[in-house]
Amino acid sequence: MADPEQIAALRDFNRFYTTRLGMTRHGLHKTDHPLAEARVLYELGAHGVLETSALKDALAIDAGQLSRLVKRLQEQGLIHRTASPADARRQQVELTGEGEAAFARLDQGSREEVGALLDALPDPEGALAAIQKLREAIEPTPTRDVRLRDLRIGDLGWLVERHGVLYATEYGWDGSFERMVAGIAAAFDPEHDRAWVAEVDGQRAGAVLCVHDTPANAKLRTLLVEPHARGLGLGTRLVNAVIEHARRQRYRTVTLWTNDILHAARHIYERAGFTLHSEAPHHAFGHDLTEQTWSLTLQPWTETH
């Protein structure tokens, strides 16, 4: 049996954290949806059409609870229930147009609140590592095979496609962002540029480019980490690969361009030693954003470095 003081400490943290994230409020993230409804909307928004049995398993609730939630959301016009085309005895649910809008509001509110929480932490990467460690202790997972490799045929196309899909899903950016990334990929020159692809258990999970700018400066571009691989330190490893390569190639600085709403990436850059060089408001990818340029001055590379 666990120590009573340890039990009390964990219970106290649970109360603090659920309150801090607003889970005790009637509506999450400035919406009218309580936690249970928000979870249903999230699962359907993230995965599309789901059979009710799969939705029940994802939420870890019983069939009666799910039935009441589905009925409530149907009455609000947010979800649509039909018979499964694979088996008419099974039911499937999906978001309506109004449901997709509700999911987008919830998702945006969640990202803003969690982003603000991360911004306020002195060591967000350390906090996320502690969360991952606790999660693995509660629910152990097999050791993951994580590695970086060089570019292969097909990787650049994958990089463009995943940027387009992820940024549209997570930030609502339009197709002009994917076209911009396609231009960067088209300009990639293996004669003087370098790319790394991160793999987890043999599957592509992230990537980054180091692009020649001037004899003194290299650019870090198109950093990407797939959602399923976040928390494994891939972003840090990819950024460090760029820095080490640039140092070996005798560049004096590395610069990068980003937008201020990309909180997780910004924290990685800061931890790697990048400093904010400039920022300005601009309208891009269908949104009003703040573009930023970050820079890192490199220490000279030596054979013993």
TrEMBL record:
<dbReference type="InterPro" id="IPR016181">
    <property type="entry name" value="Acyl_CoA_acyltransferase"/>
</dbReference>
<dbReference type="Pfam" id="PF00583">
    <property type="entry name" value="Acetyltransf_1"/>
</dbReference>
<dbReference type="GO" id="GO:0003700">
    <property type="term" value="F:DNA-binding transcription factor activity"/>
</dbReference>
<dbReference type="InterPro" id="IPR000835">
    <property type="entry name" value="HTH_MarR-typ"/>
</dbReference>
<dbReference type="InterPro" id="IPR036390">
    <property type="entry name" value="WH_DNA-bd_sf"/>
</dbReference>
<feature type="domain" description="N-acetyltransferase">
    <location>
        <begin position="146"/>
        <end position="299"/>
    </location>
</feature>
<dbReference type="GO" id="GO:0008080">
    <property type="term" value="F:N-acetyltransferase activity"/>
</dbReference>
<dbReference type="InterPro" id="IPR050769">
    <property type="entry name" value="NAT_camello-type"/>
</dbReference>
<dbReference type="InterPro" id="IPR036388">
    <property type="entry name" value="WH-like_DNA-bd_sf"/>
</dbReference>
<dbReference type="Pfam" id="PF12802">
    <property type="entry name" value="MarR_2"/>
</dbReference>
<keyword id="KW-0808">Transferase</keyword>
<feature type="domain" description="HTH marR-type">
    <location>
        <begin position="1"/>
        <end position="140"/>
    </location>
</feature>
<dbReference type="InterPro" id="IPR000182">
    <property type="entry name" value="GNAT_dom"/>
</dbReference>
<protein>
    <submittedName>
        <fullName>Helix-turn-helix domain-containing GNAT family N-acetyltransferase</fullName>
    </submittedName>
</protein>
